[in-house]
Specification:
single chain; alpha+beta; hypothetical protein PF0899 fold; 2 domains; four-stranded mixed β-sheet; 6 helices; about 10% strand
């Protein structure tokens, strides 16, 4: 072997050693990169799972809250419907009063709403036809010291009850007006009675 060949062989051996060291170093660096990448992927995966769980929890809370609100609203709708049905039935019950009961209620309503003065009572055509003979006198016997009531012989365009007029003032004592005027109190009373 010549000197040149020995030099070449030595250079090749050194090159191989350097290449082997570079390859070994590259393999170690690749292993480190791969380990770091796996670690980062595991961390990202855990974060993604955590975020997904948090999002699912938020959606569950919103869904539960929405369902509770819907249930509560439906419950209130049903309660209001029941109360409205009872009030409507009570109003319709007026049609089933006997003449005696009906005119006793009218008499008490009239006496309650009278202040000093002369009043004209307006009734509908059905009530005018069935008004008891002594109805006007039974009212005036109670209020005679401060007022007087006279029943108008012409029918008023009202459903039931009566309207009192005196000196341009009108007192609406129709049952519809009385129900409407006291609607909130009626609803509160029924709500307390039925649902508390």
């Amino acid at each position: 072997m010549t000197g040149l060949e020995k030099i070449q062989e030595k250079i090749l051996a050194q090159s191989k050693t350097v290449c082997d060291e570079i390859i070994a170093s590259a393999n170690e660096e690749a292993k480190s990169i791969l380990i770091a990448a796996r670690q980062k992927a595991t961390e990202l995966n855990a974060e993604i799972i955590r975020n997904a769980e948090l999002a699912a929890d938020r959606k569950n809370i919103l869904a539960k809250s929405g369902a509770e609100t819907l249930t509560r609203n439906r419950y209130l709708e049903v309660r209001n419907a029941i109360i409205n049905d009872i009030i409507s039935a009570a109003y319709e019950e007026i049609e089933h009063f006997s003449d005696e009961e009906y005119f006793d209620i009218l008499r008490r309503l009239c006496i309650k709403n009278i202040t000093p003065g002369e009043y004209v009572m307006h009734l509908n055509s059905v009530d005018l036809a069935r008004v008891p003979e002594n109805f006007e006198d039974s009212i005036n016997a109670v209020i005679y010291e401060k007022a007087a009531v006279f029943i108008k012989k012409e029918a008023a365009d009202i459903e039931n009850g009566f309207i009192l007029t005196a000196d341009g003032v009108e007192i609406n004592c129709t049952f519809r007006a009385l129900f409407d005027e006291n609607m909130d109190n009626l609803k509160d009373m029924l709500n307390g009675f039925l649902f508390n």
